[in-house]
Amino acid sequence: MLPKKLQAMNFAASESSVAPTLSRRGFLISAAATATGLAIGYQVLGAKASAGAAGGPLSPFASYVEISEDGVVTVLSSQFEMGQGAYHGLATLVVEELGANWDQVTVRGVSANNDLYGNLAWGGVAQGSGGSTSMATSWDRYRKAGAAAREMLIAAAAQSWGVPAAEISVKEGVVSHASGRSAGFGALVKAAASQPVPTDIALKAPSEWTEIGSESTKRYDRVGKTNGAQDFTIDVKLPGMLTAVMIHPPKFGATVAGFDAAEAKQIAGVHDVIAIPRGVAVVAKDMWTALKARDLVTVSWDESQAETRGIDEIFTEYRALAEQAPTAMARNDGDAAAAIGAAETVLEATYEFPFLAHAALEPLNAIAHRDADGVLNIYGGHQIPDLYHYIVSQVTETPMEQIRMVIMKTGGGFGRRAVGDGDVVAEAAMIARAIGYAAPVKVQWTRENDMRGGRYRPAYVHKMRAGLDKDGKLVGFENHIVGQSIVAGTPFEGLIQNGIDQTSVEGASNQPYAIPNVAVGLTTTDVKVPVLWWRAVGSTHTAYAVETFMDEIIEATGGDPVQYRLDLLKDHPRHAGVLKLAAEKAGYGKKALPEGHYHGVSVHESFASYVAEIAEVSVEGGEVVVHKVTAAVDVGTAINPDTIKAQVEGGVGFGLGSVLQEDLTLTQGAVDQGNYDSYMPLRIDQMPEIDVHIVESDAPPTGIGEPGLPPIGPAVANAVYRATGTRVRILPFAKGMVA
Amino acid sequence: MEHVLKINGQEHRVDVDPDQPLLWAIRDAVGLTGTKYGCGVAQCGACTVHLNGVPVRSCQTFVEDAVGAEITTIEGIGDKVATAVQEAWADLDVPQCGYCQSGQIMSAAALLSETPKPTDADIDSAMSGNLCRCATYQRIRGAIHEAAKRLEA
Ligand code: FES
Ligand code: FES
């Protein structure tokens, strides 16, 4: 998802100490330097002042919490909900301090006020969710909002009851006084909203927490997700709404040369067929009519600017580049080349990582509806809402104030809903405008649109070298990464520093092992396949390369995979902590495993969270079976332990599918896969038992939407090596085990 | 063309092509949106409904073949087994994004109606047609066992 940082950065508890690595101004200038309109628009948005900026502190009721007169507490979330539990996390912080009852709580996404909603883990430069930062950015902000709202409710009650505020308490949605007087939030909210906003708010001490850290809290939105009630963008109904399906160019970079829709337009219920810059849209009264009509449209494409290479040609180029010197260095400790040159034993390995699709279960969609007041309402999974807001304004030539972003929960995301050009959101806006805003229009991508719509985890090649001296000591480590930049050519291009896109090298450039000479280089390639952050971003490949190569090194030294790592992690207690805990819980080296079962070990930090995983694996008839994964995580303060466990389970399952069998390939520039029959996420019969342990910590909270993923691939690969003697260096395993 | 579909015990007149997938008739013509579209080709299970109690992929079932059948969607399942499944799902906090879960629950309820005490292997085979991109599978297994236990009690 979005890069967490411009360089390694520790999240801290207080707002002021979450220091931006670049100032807001720095970010905006560098973003504007991309010379795209988007970056400049972003700058305009960023400059927008909040209502409270001029006067005193802003009321929590004007920013983060709404309480209705019937007592419904609505948490206004700056963070996006795609399944990872961000809404529940933010609600937990508010409920804790406010003293609300979970039954009265709901959450709504909000946007268009960067001062209130800008992500503090990114220095507040923009609103957005990514890099597993939702809890880090919200930790103070939403607890303070809950506490301020509580104080104001108490002040209102004190005033109306004529008792000292200090004698009033709030618990589970009830404000009460020793005299027996009590009231719900709804009855007090009107008076509360006009109370002075407290400036000095005392937050609860950890010992007073009843919600934060509670094992028994269940997600506030769980029931609606078991009875069909939870609405996603695909489910939004608006009077007279039309459905549009897209015909996209078959090759990336191609454009519409012409199309014939005469036959399609004969079908009853077809509203129009139109060309927009991103393809041809078939607009009809409902989905099936649109799909049927789409089959009858013929489009000719201008492929003169299109990517026409196949995956083999791309990898051939990458392999050759990997043998040359990197074009930029991300890390250079000592002199790795010299150390390896003088080494007694030299190890070398080349890894290949395919393109990967997010393939969230809800295919991309968005709705545009200009209402009777002339307001253009845009419904969708707006992971970077202000940017999308700006894009809609640009493509429809509508003033920003006349656009309202309606933020929907999505059926998965994994990074795909945070796109620099707003793809499907832009389509909805363009189509609505092209049909003269005649009716609300929903653009619904088919699974095939989604699979072939680009924005993949980039393909990469890693060339690794290591040297051991005559005593078997690891003296040099080199890692050359070859692949596309995720941020180049996007509004986030300012994140490239000194030729290094951090999202390409994160997890490798900051690998923690104490090695005297380390070189991490990058060669950024030029391929027209659109790429994007994909759950855990750089660490999806760097963790695999580093942690499996470490395993080879350890084997060459005769060391033990856990002990050797611990020896090199003396300055990294949090890495060591999770590794020790995982080893202990897995019974690593102690418990006798069933015949043919082997343990594989991996530890990795991503997004300031630390995760170790030990996989128990057997290989039966060439098939890799993962029986059990024991994970230990350190995310600082564990706000919702059960959500943390769920995210590690999900991250392991997501990551395991990718290393075992996900493979997005191209032939002459066209994507080969179209649906889940050829692009295959993990299914239940491949899901191991997963046992998650959380390190106790009072450090500020970090995230867990992504960090559970990176260690699983290398943990399984290291176990597969023990089972078979094969080092899998070409992913997915379905390819690399036979290669 | 007009067809009568009996969904969740209620008759709905829908004016759609006979070869229209039941999925889109349920979602667009009838307006019940708990049944989801994920793939359209019987690969993900998000569109699972019951036809006379048997789980089917509504994206690959034609409207004309559903006429006359008792169609049950996530909005309409409410028998003892299904309720136990839904409650176990909520109690184990199975859903993440939730998008696949209507289909998962329809498949799980059908499994438990046929096989009241499923093994892990039974679960894996009955549920492997239901994709969960959030990979909530461990909890799905757990919730099915939990529902089975509660139904037995
Ligand atoms: S939508 Fe029917 S199985 Fe996927
Ligand atoms: S809960 Fe997200 S796809 Fe299953």
Quick synopsis:
The complex is a heterodimer of chains A (739) and B (153). Chain A has 739 residues and is of the alpha+beta class.
Feature tags:
heterodimer, A: 739 residues, alpha+beta, Aldehyde Oxidoreductase, domain 4, seven-stranded mixed β-sheet, 20 helices, 29% helix, globular, B: 153 residues, DNA polymerase, domain 1, 2 domains, five-stranded mixed β-sheet, 6 helices, binds FE2/S2 (inorganic) cluster
Give a description of the structure.
The complex is a heterodimer of chains A (739) and B (153). By secondary structure, chain A is α+β, with helices and mostly antiparallel strands. Chain A has 3 domains: 57-208, Aldehyde Oxidoreductase, domain 4, CATH 3.30.365.10; 234-304 and 359-451, Aldehyde Oxidoreductase, domain 4 (2-Layer Sandwich); 490-510 and 527-736, Aldehyde oxidase/xanthine dehydrogenase, molybdopterin binding domain (Aldehyde Oxidoreductase, domain 4, 2-Layer Sandwich), CATH 3.30.365. Helix content of chain A is 29%, strand content 22%. The longest helix of chain A is centred in the N-terminal third of the chain and has 28 residues, at 134-161. Residues 1-54 of chain A have low confidence and may be disordered. Chain B has 153 residues and is of the alpha+beta class. Chain B contains 6 helices and 5 strands. Chain B has helices at residues 22-30, 63-66, 80-91, 101-114, 120-127, 137-152; strands at residues 2-7, 10-15, 48-51, 54-57, 70-72. Chain B has a 5-stranded mixed beta sheet with strand order 2-1-5-3-4, with helices on both faces. In chain B, helix 3 (80-91) crosses helix 4 and helix 4 packs across helix 5. Chain B starts with a strand and ends with a helix. In chain B, 59% of the residues are buried. The chains are: A alpha+beta (739), B alpha+beta (153). At the A-B interface, helix 8 and helix 18 of A face helix 1, helix 3, helix 4, helix 5 and helix 6 of B. One FE2/S2 (inorganic) cluster binds at residues 37-40, 42-47, 57, 59 of chain B.
